[in-house]
């Protein structure tokens, strides 16, 4: 994780050419905040997990929602699988920038 995450608004302002070219994408504002970190940035590792007891963990997680029905937990999840959320494909190795304003995904690490 990057030591000092960039504010998503600043990232957008400084990289409008990457937005136009599709290298930087803003995800739809449909995510809930889980975990103790509200602001974070770093390389993406995609995970498919069935765990809802993460709010006490010192990590940043954005997810669509929790679900009240019991999961069929098999003691395993999936890692390094591309995911598509609200029409945006997200892959391992891309960079994520998240704060209370939203989530950005970039093909490469960005510096403002």
UniProtKB/TrEMBL annotation:
<dbReference type="InterPro" id="IPR036704">
    <property type="entry name" value="RraA/RraA-like_sf"/>
</dbReference>
<dbReference type="InterPro" id="IPR005493">
    <property type="entry name" value="RraA/RraA-like"/>
</dbReference>
<protein>
    <recommendedName>
        <fullName>4-hydroxy-4-methyl-2-oxoglutarate aldolase</fullName>
    </recommendedName>
</protein>
<dbReference type="Pfam" id="PF03737">
    <property type="entry name" value="RraA-like"/>
</dbReference>
